[in-house]
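Q: Second attempt. The first request was missing the SMILES, so the protein and pyridoxal-5'-phosphate are both included now.
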Amino acid sequence: MDLSRFPRRNYTPFPTPLERAPRFSAALAASCPGGVGPDIWFKRDDMLGLFPGGNKTRKLEFLMGEALAQGADTIITCGAPQSNHCRITLSAAVREGLKCRFVIEERVPGSYSQTASGNNFMFHLMGIEAITVVPGGSDIAAAMAQMADQVRAEGGKPYIIPGGGSNAIGGLGYVACAQELQQQFFDQGAQIDRVVVGSGSSGTHGGLVAGFLGNHIKIPIVGIGVSRDPADQEPLVFKEAQAVADLLDVGLTIPRDAVVSVGGYWQPKYSIPNAAMVEAVQMLARTEGILLDPVYTGKIMAGLIGLAREGYFKPSEQVLFLHTGGLPSLHAYEDVVLGRVEV
Ligand SMILES: *Cc1c(COP(=O)(O)O)cnc(C)c1O
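A: Got both inputs this time. The predicted holo structure:
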């Protein structure tokens, strides 16, 4: 798929590592029925640029490319109080010499604190220009449009990036990731049987589905929902994958059954900790020295662990876990991930 005709900024001057996780695989197998489990690989998208980067970095390469091509001077985006997406967007804006404003959605009532650590601290350190906090369930698109009007009234030129950077343009970042993986599978002789990826605002999962199908990579992808069960999540991802394919204009129709997600691991609520997340964060830290985060990758890995224990994978299966980042929010949940408070 030809990505070269889209404006793009390059924030990571190297492919992120594709690596095995032998100590974690052994620990996981020991906890699976019969003592056998899948062989786990990591795609280290937690090492992307705009450090500490994550999946939003790939989407922003194309989104910022378009913003700059349109002559924008102010980026507007939205997210939760500990949004990685907002932090990485701000980082990209600073790098490009642009201003940046956020609409923060307080999805968990009372969860926004101006002095919170983690990503919120970094918003202020990197000089966020304005933050508007709105209650969960608000019309976020309308709030961002209003913010854009304000920027225009002040003589600026706004560019709005949707939640998670998940539109067709942002999804191109994960088509690029699919192509990077295809080359790495070849170079490293990796015979991957399945990919496990987080599924939230859908740009990562949807972009990857479009990229795999468009590049004839016949490896099934399973998304672990971070905020929705399959009945609500899969239609979102399906729509995103088709929008990405349409933007690329390669005549690709996404089969509905190419979009598979698993629910149950994000409960009780988006961003609220659960015991399986704590186990996953501790297990990866203590077997591989890999840090997961409490809101996304901890729950996504809890999904992989849960699926392995219920026999979802063949015992010898080579499973690739896409590590999407999220490191800063770990600091906002230190007592939880150390097991000092019950969840
Ligand atoms: C945003 C995010 C996700 C979810 O990706 P989407 O493209 O929104 O589905 C997963 N992991 C981390 C660390 C994130 O910040």
